[in-house]
Design brief:
3 domains; alpha/beta; Udp-n-acetylmuramoylalanyl-d-glutamate--2,6- Diaminopimelate Ligase, Chain: A, domain 1; Protein-Tyrosine Phosphatase, Chain A; 16 helices; globular
Amino acid sequence: MSELNYKFSASDVLKITGGRLLHGSLFVPFKNISTDSRTIKPEDLFIPLKGEHFDGHSFIPQVYKKGANGVIVKRNSLEEKGWDGEWAVIEVDDTLRALGDIAHFWRMKHPIPIVGITGSNGKTTTKEMIGSILEITFNILKTEGNFNNLIGLPLTLLRLSKKDEIAVLEMGTNARGEIKRLSEISVPDVAVITNIGQAHLQGLLSVEEVREEKGELFKILREDSFAIINQDDPMVLKLAAECRCRKIGFSMREEAELMAKDVSISDSGKVSFSLAAEDKDAIINLPLYGVFNVYNALAAAGVAQSLGVGLEIIKEGLERFKPLPGRMEIMELDGYTIINDTYNVNPNSMGQALKTLTGFKGTGRTIAVLGDMLELGEFSKSAHIQIGSMVSGLGIDYLFTLGKDSVNIALAASEGGMNEENIYMEKEHQDVTAKLRAIITKGDCILVKGSRSMKMELIIKELTNQTSDIRHQTSDRRGESG
C-alpha cells in the first residue's frame, strides 16, 4: 500500500476507533473519508452520521455500488448481510466520535502548529484575517465556510497534507462539551477566544455557561502553547488567568502586547488605527466597516506574532484582507447603500451592526431591517427588547422587523420614542422588500441582519433584482454553531 495514495487501512481504523471488523480484510486501504454518500469516490471510507431528519446508514447500499472500500457503522444498526469481496464493514459505538478519533490520528501525523478560534462574535472574520496574514509566508489550511462543528472540523483536519505548514480552525458550539471535544480532536498550539456574550443561550442557558464552554479551548493548552487574550473582555481575562501557557494580550483601552491606538473612521466608513507591537507602530487601514473589527484584527495580529510573523507582514495581511459575503458587506446600489450582514446574529453582533449603521448617517436616512435572533431560549424576549431600545436610542430613521420574535424589537423601539409610522412589522420577505422599495431614496443606508435560518439574504436578492443566488455555506448539522 503506497503511503502517498492511501491514508488508512482497515487495520488502522480498528486501532484508532476501537471498532470491530464485521466483514472484509484488515488490509483494505482507504484513500479518503466521506460522510456524504453523494460525493463518495472509489476506495473511500464512508462514515454514515445520524441527524434529526436523516440517517446515513440508509445510503450504505449506494455507497457500496459506487466502489467505496468500506464503511463504519453504529453498533447493531446494520441489517444488510452477504457483502462480497474485501469490502470492510467496521462496527463502532458512535460513528461521529469515530470520525473525530480518525481526524485526531491524522492531525497527530502532521505535527504542525494548529490555531483554534472560538468566541461569541467575530470567529470567522478573525479566522479569515489570520489566513490573510499567514498565507503571505506559509502554506496554510483553514476552515472553509462554517465547517466549525463536530463534523466540519474533523473533515477539515482530514485534508491536511505534507505541504501544509499551519492550520487555522474555527470552532463553534451550541451545546456543552463541543469545544472540549473539538479541542481534543485538533490539539491546538495557539488559541483565541474573541469574546464572550449572549449566544446560543437555548443550549448553553446563561452567559456564564457560554464562558465555561468557550473556556475549554484554553484548558487544553500546554505550557509551550499560546493563548491570545482579549484584555477588554472580563470573561476572557478570567479564563486566561486560569491557564498555564504563554500569553499575548491585546486591547483598545489599556497597556498590552498589542494595542490599537488612534482609531478613526474614514469618510467612506472604513476603519483605521495605529497598531502598537514590539515597540513599533504601524498604521492599519482595514478594508472593513465597524470599529468592532479592530478587535478581530488585534486577535489575528496576536496569532501571527505568536508564530513569529513581524509587524510589516501583519500590516500587509490585514490590509489585503477581503471580507466574506454576508459579513458587513457594503453594497452600493442606485444611489443608496446596503450593509449585508445576513450571515448570522446574536445580541452582541446585532448591537455592533446597528452602531455601524449610524456611522453612515449623512445626506440620507438609516434603515434597519432586522430578523429574529434565534437560539436564545428564555432570554429571547429580553434580548429583542434590548435591541429595540437601542434602535430608538441610536436615532435610526426606519425599522423593519421580520418574524414573530422580532416583534419585540418593534414594540420596544416604539416605546422608546421612535415614530410608529416608521416601524414596519412583517411576516414575509416579499412584504419587507415591497415596502422598502416604496420608501428608499438617494443616500439611504439599509442594514439587513438576522439569524441564518431567517434567510434575510432573500430580501437583498429581491431588493437588488439579483439573478444569481446569494448563498451561505450551511452547517453540517442543524443549528447555528457559534
